[in-house]
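Complex record, two chains
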Amino acid sequence: MSAHGEHIDVDKHVRTYVLVFVTLLALTLITVAISYLHLPLLPAVALALVVALTKGSLVACYFMHLISERKLIFLVLAFTVFFFFFVLLGPWLTEANQVGAGL
Amino acid sequence: MSTAIPYTVEVRQDTGLNNVKLGIWLFLASEVMLFGALFASYILLRVGAPPGTWPIHGAVYLNVPLATINTAVLITSSVTMVMAWASLVRARQAGSESLGKYRLFMGATVALGFVFLVIKYFEYSAKFHHHLGPHTNTFLAIYFTLTGLHGLHVIGGMAVNSYLLFPGSKMWRTAPQQFINRVEAAGLFWHFVDLVWIFLFPVLYLL
């Protein structure tokens, strides 16, 4: 039984963990291989982020069981993601602040 | 009056969760903001760096093969951590009191955390040997800050996992579901540490 009270099929979970593990290792090698292509900065950043986001999603969904989590956890994470992007965009907001620049 | 934390096993009606699960996710949310602020600092420093002062990519200073091995080590430790939790769930379903497989997987998780730190030690040593440190330039300053903070999280996770491997595992005999919940919470933290590294690796070493 899980903490939520439902039955857990452990064998099915273990098969998924092994599959995710192999995928994560393959994606790590792909990330390194992409870096040796010496792409211009923007495509390199975009590709690296896509691969990292895919790997991160696999860890969060399967190892952290987010795929079968309760609504409240998603609510907490939605708030977190909102403020996370707010913090990430902070540098651009300060950059764009031209109030009083011409004085 | 009881001082025990309520709802460590049973689910609260209003949240649909036990307090262990909700507590660890709230903590992880605060951790996302901590590392988010540092990632934002990295972007600001990189975008604002005068031309020629930021390395073309991290490999100019950093050892990519060692970091790739470390990525594989942390990913493997995430699998052993989740397998430790799965072995407990399986043992509880089978009515077994054996902790053999749990100890094997949890021991492997702690050992892999140690391997990660040893590799990091060699990386740091090589930098210091060449007189490269946080004082050298902005890139290395943010590199040491981010990887240093991440390393502290690895040490913290190893401390909790070691506790659950040895003295903390006594709870398995008296309160097995509560012990499983503790291992799951420790696992969520450990996977988060892995998750942070998944982003640190390309950002610092490859771009």
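Note: Chain B touches chain A through 58 residues (CB under 8 Å).
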